[in-house]
Amino acid sequence: MTTPVVGRQRTLGFSQPAPPPPLRTPRTSLKLRNALIGWTFILPNFLGFAVLTLVPVFTLFYMSLTDWNIFGTAKWVGLDNFARLVGDKSFHIALGNTFYYAALHIPITIVVSLSLALLLNQKLRGAAFFRTVAFFPYITSIVAVAVVWNMLFSPEFGPINQFLSLFTDGDVPGWTVSKDWAMPAVIIVGTWKDMGYYMLLFLAGLQTVPGELQEAARLDGANAWQRFLNVTLPCLRPTMFFVTVMVTIQSLKVFDLILVMTDGGPGQATLVLSQYIYQKGFEQFDFGYASAIAVVLFLICIVVTVVQFLYNKRKEA
């Protein structure tokens, strides 16, 4: 009788053939396809972030440790650029002016934006028109804004001082030509320009406030101020946190408005860190020192943002 093939293979010492690989199930193929589709959508944005943000940030940290004037080879100097900051009076003035601008611009912008949002959230005739009017300054050219407001703030011929002179004996502010009033003038214009954008964010947040809570508080006898403090404001906490972070970062890195409105003057009354970075880098070509100042501004923004996140997390706990 003939021996079976399998038995013959065992007799001759041959091993069993390897089992075939498991077949890919439809569910596995679907997961793989979804993952590839997801990465396809993410990849362009990630590449843009890596090329336009991540690589420049790492380059910035490297340049801050070098002496480079763009025309030669970068010379490694270590922490010398940061040591120069300690004795640089202009840097100290710019740092103080940056905090001065942020300390006033942040709360004023938030209060004005929230007030406008509460007002325009009411059922008023023409509310949509006034929302558009309030938002329009945000999309207006910064150069046009600076030119118009410089005319309005003119000490001799500006309509603002002409109006104020009706209530004073001629002692009116010098605004952009005065060291004491230049920064308040910039803060006023910055608030006027930014309030429309943050007003829209608050308007969006107000749409999430449950009407049932407002009605229940009204039935309990709460007045408008009490309803705002105990109902509206707690419901606006996520929006308030987002607006606070955004306006804080924007205030710390303010640049274009001051550049075209006062150019840091008179003297150094409105010189801020962003403009000082511009002066050192693109006017004096000291890119290593300018990068060191930029690193300081970057770290300030990071620290302030982290503190805000921790504070908000503690409040939510």
Beta-strand content = under 5%
**Oligomerization:** single chain
Unreliable stretches covering 5 or more consecutive residues: 1-14
- CATH level 1 name: Mainly Alpha
Protein name: Sugar ABC transporter permease
Keywords: Cell membrane, Membrane, Transmembrane, Transmembrane helix, Transport
Family: Belongs to the binding-protein-dependent transport system permease family.
Domain ABC transmembrane type-1: 95-308
Provide the fold topology.
Layout: H1 5-12, H2 26-63, E1 66-67, E2 75-76, H3 80-87, H4 89-120, H5 127-135, H6 142-152, H7 159-164, H8 182-206, H9 211-219, H10 224-235, H11 237-252, H12 256-261, H13 273-283, H14 287-316
Antiparallel strand pairs: 1-2
Membrane topology: Multi-pass membrane protein
Subcellular location: Cell membrane
InterPro entries: ABC_transporter_permease, MetI-like, MetI-like_sf
